[in-house]
Amino acid sequence: MTETIRETSLAASVSRALEACGVTAEALGGEHEARSPLTGEVLLTVPTATAEDVTEAITKAHEAFLQWREVPAPVRGNVIKRWGELLTEHKEDLAILVQAEAGKITSEALGEVQEMIDICDFAVGQSRMLYGKTMPSERPGHRLQETWHPLGVVGVISAFNFPVAVYSWNTALALVCGDSVVWKPSGITVLSALGAHALLARAIRDTGAPADIHQLVIADRHASQAIIEDPRVALVSATGSVRLGQEIAPRIAARFGRALLELGGNNAAIVAPSADLDLALRGIVFAAVGTAGQRCTTMRRLIVHESIVDELTEKLVSAYGTLRIGDPTEPSTLVGPLINEKSFNDMQRALADARAQGGTVLTGGGRVLADERPDAYYVEPAIVRMPRQSEVVQDETFAPILYVLTYSDFPEAIALQNGVPQGLSSAIFTNDQAEAEKFISAAGSDCGIANVNIGTSGAEIGGAFGGEKETGGGRESGSDSWRVYMRQATNTINYSGELPLAQGVKFL
Ligand code: NAD
């Protein structure tokens, strides 16, 4: 894949990858510019949907749902099985699109598509395991059970930084659960969306499923409002900033729709005096600078025991000095570009605020390759020593800035870790078992993800993924997240020939 991009121009390799995924010329051309953060160039243009188009997509998805919900779940699994096969076959093609639009290094772009393949495997298995419980009834000759049924249309709104993986967690499970899907991808990563959609459309055709169970709408936030407002959209699964959640959650709640929110994080790792510092160093560097600090699970805060902070920050600064920053298609590159100029400006503003609040930038923060690529934004990841918990540390700046704070006793470390509005991911590096257990106990980390001796990012699909507080409380991907995409019914079946009432109530 790397060779492919470097041998040809970026736009040409993107066009080839789109064609290989089955995206036809009709899906291209239009007003919306698909730009690459690698160079800042416009790769292609695509047409966008109007508000009427979005409503029509919901209508089609709803009609398809009425058929799809009656197809046995293991048969529904066949679509996802086929999608997984096609994703495996076209892993490199889709990864080229992800790399070109989201700026990921090659192994991370391939990893993103691998995550899609993994969730397909998981969802196919899940299609035979949509279990309900049977409970003993208090009445003779009665049986009590729960059944799970398809929910309806699921609206999926996705963020630029995982343009296809997080969407696929939702879509693979929603489709095996008998729902249909209307997908509004980020306007920044529309070509990746076209590629993933074309492969799913082919899987739907190959398996004879109703054609309209998956709808892609490339629409701006105004045109896509029907996804939030239309009562036929039973569940809105939205991934993005806290601001997005604040805008849409009250409106979905007002119509009693369901919302699955995967919003911003502000993830920290505690490094205890007993930690293996070399292992911690590797875990910290991957989590803090991987994807150029543009993962929801990026490590943004490091809470280090005061006895080891100088040693650890010295090691970190020297490790940061070895990172190769630049074109993510180069095999040796570890840090690709920021997504756009706004992101660069946000980073500079946060660094200025950190300095104003008493912080010292130990390394990084500057722009690189500006002469060679004036329309792209490559930066040196920054480490900032902060004297205390301060305002800037409370915010998620979607760029590679790692704030270093110190602690003197363990309760203080936990208080610092939990002392932000977001609650996505967290980690501790320690070889003290009691500390590790406390960290993951009820009185420890308040996040949806709490790791031991591993960084904050890079989750596997098998576990439930999501976070608390301003991160939104949603859970998706593995474990029993499938239930979010279904409705539960409780059935009482009376085979006694009598009509005894519960709680011994007498009537008639
Ligand atoms: P964003 O909030 O700007 O946009 C996310 C999506 O929401 C896009 O598709 C956008 O078009 C859409 N959107 C925004 N406002 C909308 C509105 N009012 N109505 C309908 N749609 C609207 O986020 P981004 O910059 O694309 O992504 C980065 C953010 O996403 C970060 O905060 C990151 O932490 C978060 N994120 C969270 C997770 C998670 O699982 N918790 C995963 C990935 C990204």
Give a verbal description of the structure.
The chain is an alpha/beta fold. The protein folds into 2 domains: 10-263 and 472-489, Aldehyde Dehydrogenase, Chain A, domain 1 (3-Layer(aba) Sandwich), CATH 3.40.605; 267-461, Aldehyde Dehydrogenase, Chain A, domain 2 (3-Layer(aba) Sandwich). It is 39% helix and 20% strand. The strands form 7 sheets. It has a 7-stranded mixed β-sheet, sandwiched between helices. Helix 11 crosses helix 12. The longest helix is centred in the first third of the chain and has 21 residues, at 106-126. The radius of gyration is 24 Å and the shape is globular. It is an enzyme of class 1 (oxidoreductase). InterPro entries: Ald_DH/histidinol_DH, Ald_DH_C, Ald_DH_CS_GLU, Ald_DH_N, Aldehyde_DH_dom, ALDH7A1-like.
